[in-house]
Amino acid sequence: MRQRRTVYFLSDHTGITVEAMGRSLLSQFPELEIDTVHWPFIDRAEKAEKVAEHINRAAMESVVRPIVFSTLVDPEVRGRLKGVRAWVFDFFESCTDGLAEELGLAHHPVRGCSHGVGDLHSYHERIHAVNYALTNDDGAVTRNYPAAEVILIGVSRSGKTPTCLFLGLQHGILAANWPLTEEELEPPRLPEPLVPWKGKLFGLTIDPLHLQRIRQERRPTGRYSSLEQCRNEVRAAERLFDAEGIPSLDTTAMSVEEIATRLLQKMSLESRMK
Q1: Are 131 and 120 in contact (CB under 8 A)?
Q2: 274 domain-assigned
Q3: Residue 125 lies in a domain
């Protein structure tokens, strides 16, 4: 039986953490459909009161109460949400007291510390890595390959660019990518500019039917988005990966977060995330 709920993600900073944790919990209930409301930067009691009023109004207009996930740190701000007409999961309240007891240490609430700039060196490394990914996208520039920590290769629309950007933004990894063209896949051969950097190569592959759907969004008609073309390119790319001993990953059912995490493991790369 399917169910639909309104889900609030409340945070005193960007809301990235609370949404990731909340969605992870909700993913265990595949019958649930959700309407999400994001409310970041709730850093004052007055803001929390307005949010509480909004939630209460929404609850009165619905036959089922909303669900609230919160990572509000300040006890005073958090207190303004007590008694709202919703099921509230407060990550800090649920976890911090037990952790403090185990550690034998007092906790000192600091808003937004999980996503602050923090270590400036680490922050600048991540920004540099994002710029690197943008500059070295789609094989446009190869002179920077000596600095690359990984070079993604794969057919067009297999997920190379978003993975490179995610590796840069979230992990500070210098990632470039090269698209395998039809000419390079007939017969499959390693493009000449990549030969010196074979040890840095990582292949992305994808189910041809899924690839066709993605390509049709970009170019609905023509050979580029035909199922036959997608099958031929994917098959040839996978033969190339096998022949050259290039580690690879099937991205079909993976989020960009999972692709990046598995890539780091396979390539023995360490995240610079602080």
Answers
A1: no
A2: no
A3: yes
pTM of the entire predicted model: 0.72
Token pair 């959700």 is found at 34
Read out DSSP for 128-179? HHHHHHHHTGGGS--TTGGG-SEEEEESTTSSHHHHHHHHHHHH---EEEEE
Report mean pLDDT in 10-residue bins for the chain, 274 residues. 92 88 90 94 95 96 95 91 94 81 78 56 86 94 96 97 94 96 92 97 98 92 94 97 97 93 95 75
What total of structural domains would you count in the chain? 2
- Residues 71 and 126 grouped into a single domain: no
Report the C-alpha gap between 267 and 170 in whole angstroms.
16
Domain final residue pick, 114, 143, 163: 114
Q: Do 35 and 80 sit in the same domain of this protein?
A: yes
Asked if 168 and 177 touch (Cβ cutoff 8 Å), the reply is no
* Distance between CA atoms of residues 252 and 114, nearest Å: 31
Q: Is 6 helix (H, G, I), strand (E, B) or coil?
A: strand
Supply the CATH number for residue 86's domain: 3.40.50
Q: Which amino acid is at 54?
A: H
